[in-house]
Amino acid sequence: MKKLNNSGFSTVEGLLIVVAILFIGGISFYVFKVNQDNRKQVNLSTPIANNEATQPEQQPTPKQEVPAQQSFLTIQEMGVKLPLSESIKDAYYDNKDIATAPDIITFSLKSRALDAEPDCKNSSASTAVITRVPVGKEDPRQSGKKYSDTQADKGKVIGEYFYFVGLAQYPCAQDPNNQKILERVRTEFSDAGKNISTITP
């Protein structure tokens, strides 16, 4: 009688070992696959977080302010215009010529903000005046000197004429608040005189 060799695995034991290896392999593969999916999800969200952390914080682009369109007081009779600032945006002029010489034109400049003051509204030179003189015209107050020399800081030469803004010599406003407005208006008219320009057709 032959003796059986009992030192090896039986078929059932071999199959159990193969099933166990396949089972462990399947579970390992499942865990591996789940981890891969989790990493992909983390990697998709991580670059944004990393970019925010590593890149300097972007400052919002400042909005470029569009400059407000410049408004002007157009003086048709002289063919010029004065740039208006916020303080004199309500400026107007009286086209009654108050000059005493035939070759000089002078108009009163006023502000509606001061119309509540009777002297400011009714007096011809209560706030400021704009004057047009020929370029070579002498200033009678300063012998031998031209208006373009004596008033150079108040206006400019355009073509054959010198235009300048002169300020009233007395305060037309009685109310303290209106006196402050008057002071501001005079300053702005004076500055506008330096920037007189021609009316472009």
Q: Would you identify the regions where 5 or more consecutive residues have pLDDT less than 50?
A: none
Q: Averaged pLDDT, please?
A: 82
Number of strands: 8
What does the main sheet amount to? 5 strands, antiparallel
Q: Compute the number of structural domains.
A: 2
Q: Give the C-alpha Rg.
A: 45 Å
* Strands ordered across the widest β-sheet: 3-4-5-7-6
Order of helices and strands, N to C? HEEEEHEHEEHE
Helix segment tally:
4
What's the overall geometry? rod-shaped
- How would you classify the helix and strand content by structural class? alpha+beta
Helix content: 25-40%
Short description:
The chain is α+β, with helices and mostly antiparallel strands. Helices cover 35% and strands 20% of the residues.
What is the topological layout?
Layout lengths: L10 H44 L16 E5 L4 E5 L6 E4 L10 E7 L6 H5 L5 E7 L12 H4 L4 E4 L2 E7 L8 H18 L3 E2 L3
Antiparallel strand pairs: 1-2, 2-8, 3-4, 4-5, 5-7, 6-7
Key terms:
rod-shaped, alpha+beta, 201 residues, five-stranded antiparallel beta sheet, 4 helices
Descriptive notes:
This protein has 201 residues and is α+β, with helices and mostly antiparallel strands. It has two domains: 10-55; 71-198, no CATH class. It is 35% helix and 20% strand. The chain is built from four helices and eight strands. The chain has helices at residues 11-54, 118-122, 147-150, 176-193; strands at residues 71-75, 80-84, 91-94, 105-111, 128-134, 155-158, 161-167, 197-198. It has a five-stranded antiparallel sheet. A hairpin with a 2-residue loop joins β6 (155-158) and β7. The termini are far apart. The mean pLDDT is 82.
